[in-house]
Amino acid sequence: MPAVAWRLLSAAGKQNKNIFVMIKTLLAYIIISAALCACGGKNKANDTAGASAAEPCGPVFNADSAYSYCAAQCDFGPRVMNSEAHERCGEWIAGRFEAYGMTVTRQKAVLRGYDGTQLKSTNIIASHKPERKERVMICAHWDTRPWADNDPDSANHRKPVLGANDGASGVAVMLEVARLLSSADSLSVGVDFVCFDAEDWGVPSWSDVRDDGNSFALGAQYWAANPHVKGYKPRFGVLLDMVGGQGARFYREAFSMQYAPGVVEKVWDAAELLGFGSYFPVENGGMISDDHVPVNQIAGIPTIDIVPYYPECEASSFGPTWHTVHDDMSHIDRNTLQAVGQTVVQVLFSEGE
To answer: Most buried residue, 221, 252, 312, 322, by most Cβ within 10 Å?
Structure first.
C-alpha cells in the first residue's frame, strides 16, 4: 500500500488507538448464509444490466478458506521483489488459480525502482471464462514492502514487512472467489483476477529521494499501459487492498468517487444488502495513490479501491500494522475477510448479461 495516505483528511481526532469491533458480523453471516444457499447461485440481477441484485445471491464465501490462503502466502516469508520467496510465492499463486480452472497469464517485465534497482516483476492475470466478452476485473497487489518504515521502533525501519494484510489478504480473497467460481455455472460475466506486482517498492520515509508520486504501483502502471489483452475493456474493476485487518472499515475513497462513482454505489449497496454496512460506511474518505489510479488514468477502466481507513489510529490511518513488522497473521480477522469477500461475490453474481 502506498505511503500517500488519506491526504484529504485532517489529522485531528487521531488521539486514541481504538480498533473497531464489528459485533454484528457473525449474526449477519448466519442470516445471509441461508439466503445465499436458497438462492442456489442463480443470477438475481434486476432489469437493469449490471445493477445490484435485490436479494443475496451467489455462493457463500468461506472466510476460513481465505484465511488459509493468506497464511500460505505468509509461509513463504516477505514477498519482496527479486527474492526467492517472491518467485516461489508467485508460482504458487498462479498454480492455485490454474487449479481452479483459470487461464493464467504471467506478464513479466523488468521495472525500474525509485532507487534504480531493476525489479523482476510478474503481473499474474487469471481469467475465468476468457471467451466471454462482458467482463469484470478484480485486482490486488501480491508483493510486500521491503522496509517497515512506519514501525514504531526505528530499528525495524529497514526490515521487510511480512504483509499478511498489505498484500496477502487481497490475493486471498481473490483466490477464494476463484475457487467458488470454479464450481458455479450461473455467473453471467467473465472475471479477470489481476495480481499486480511491484506495488510496494516506493520511496521509504528514511530515504533522501523525493517521491514524484509514481514510485509505487509500478506493476499496475505497466499493466495499464500494456494490458494482457489488446483493447481490454471490462465493465469495471475493484481493487482489494488490505482487506483482512482487525477493525477495518472501508470508506469511499476519493479517486474511486471521481472515476467510478457508480461502481462505488454498486459495491456499497451490496455490502448493505448483505448486512455488512458497518464495514462499508457511506462516508467519504481520502484520496489514495494506489493501483487503481493508473488503471483509471492510463487504461481508462472505471476502477474503485476497497481500502481501510482508521480515523482514530495515531500510528497510521491505514491501521496500526501498516508498513510495520507486525503486519502478520495474528492481526488478520476472518470477519473482515468475510465482509469483503461476500460483498465481492454479491457484486459479481448481480451482474446481468
So the answer is: 322
Distances (CA, A) of 255 to 136, 177, 297: 19, 25, 10
The one-letter amino acid code at 56 reads: P
Closest by alpha carbon to 147, among 331, 329, 327? 327
What's the grid cell of residue 287?
Answer: 484520496
Distance CA 193, CA 290 (A): 17
Grid coordinates given for 311: 480515523
Tell me, letter by letter, the H, E, C secondary structure of 105-151.
Answer: EEEEEEEECCCCCEEEEEEEEEEECCCCCCEEEEEEECCCCCCCCCC
Any residues with CB less than 8 A from the CB of 40 and at least 6 apart, and which? 186
Cell of 2: 502506498
Asked whether the whole model's pTM tops 0.85, one would answer: yes
Residue 28 pLDDT > 80: no
- Give per-residue pLDDT as tens, 155-176: 999 999 999 999 999 999 999 9
CA dihedral 285, 287, 291, 292 (to 10 degrees): 80
| Cα–Cα distance for residue pair 94/188, rounded to 1 Å | 24
- In whole angstroms, give the CA distance from residue 137 to residue 313: 31
* Sequence-separated (6 or more) residues with CB below 8 Å from residue 128: 101, 102, 178, 181, 182, 187, 190, 191, 192, 193
